[in-house]
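Work Package 4 report. The design task specified in the project plan requires that, given a folded chain encoded as structure tokens, an amino acid be chosen for each position. We show below one input record used in the internal validation round.
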């Protein structure tokens, strides 16, 4: 899909990958609806986009509030006349192993990382159908494809988002609504401020938790470029870096070796 003169609705747009994607899409000629809970950050981002000659609509709301989600979609259509692209980017992490994370944190994480994207998909499909089609971009994680120790609930939420997208890709094909899943790796954003019950402050890495501390983090702008490229080319799956792709491919081809490496690495972190 050519982003020029299209309308994109982006969740989690106040920071990191979401903000960078909004800027990149606006630069490509797309009108953008910006969704997050931070009014001030959204207003600042919308102002920056307008200063650059783009069109932006800041919409404050919680992705777990279904009536708010439906209102956001209606307001976007009322303002721009259509929705061509949905970027499901909003997410939270968790720093507790699966057996010790509180049920409240587990439910909150699933509400944001899985039920929120589903709510937006359900809300945007009718206007996309009316417009003759559209594109849904779900931002998952490389550890949604290759789980790591001490982060099972987060991995499960991202794996579920991937499976949801795979099914919807088939369900929505007759309506010309396509689905792309993007798998970022370690990303240099403020994602650590949106984690649940963190017991290791300062070690959180954006969009995939936990990750090797010495690993070079990908700038959010690079992930945003990968998302825009995926919007243009519409692959089934997209990665931000060659390492992200190699990590998943290696783990798929040699899962036992990957298990051994990950066990040893995380055991060494626990001992430190």
């Amino acid at each position: 899909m050519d982003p020029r003169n299209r309308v994109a609705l982006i969740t989690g747009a106040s920071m990191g990958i979401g903000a960078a994607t909004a800027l990149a899409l606006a630069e490509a000629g797309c009108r953008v609806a910006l969704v997050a809970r931070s009014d001030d950050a959204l207003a600042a981002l919308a102002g920056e986009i307008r200063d650059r000659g783009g069109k932006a609509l800041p919409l404050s709301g919680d992705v777990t509030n279904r009536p708010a989600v439906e209102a956001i979609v209606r307001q976007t259509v009322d303002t721009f006349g259509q929705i061509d692209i949905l970027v499901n980017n909003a997410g939270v992490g968790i720093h507790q192993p699966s057996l010790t994370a509180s049920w409240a944190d587990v439910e909150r994480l699933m509400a944001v990382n899985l039920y929120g994207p589903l709510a937006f998909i359900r809300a945007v499909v009718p206007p996309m159908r009316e417009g003759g089609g559209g594109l849904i971009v779900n931002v998952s994680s490389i550890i949604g494809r290759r789980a790591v120790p001490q982060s099972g609930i987060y991995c499960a939420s991202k794996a579920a988002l991937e499976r949801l997208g795979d099914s919807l890709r088939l369900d929505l094909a007759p309506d010309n609504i396509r689905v792309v899943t993007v798998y970022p790796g370690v990303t240099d954003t403020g994602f650590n401020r949106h984690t649940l019950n963190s017991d290791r402050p300062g070690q959180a890495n954006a969009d995939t938790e936990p990750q090797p501390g010495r690993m070079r983090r990908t700038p959010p702008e690079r992930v945003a470029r990968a998302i825009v490229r995926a919007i243009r080319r519409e692959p089934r799956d997209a990665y931000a870096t060659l390492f992200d792709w190699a990590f998943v491919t290696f783990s798929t081809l040699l899962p036992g070796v990957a298990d051994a490496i990950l066990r040893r690495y995380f055991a060494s972190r626990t001992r430190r």
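Residues 103-130 form the longest helix (28 residues). Validation will be extended to a larger panel in the next phase.
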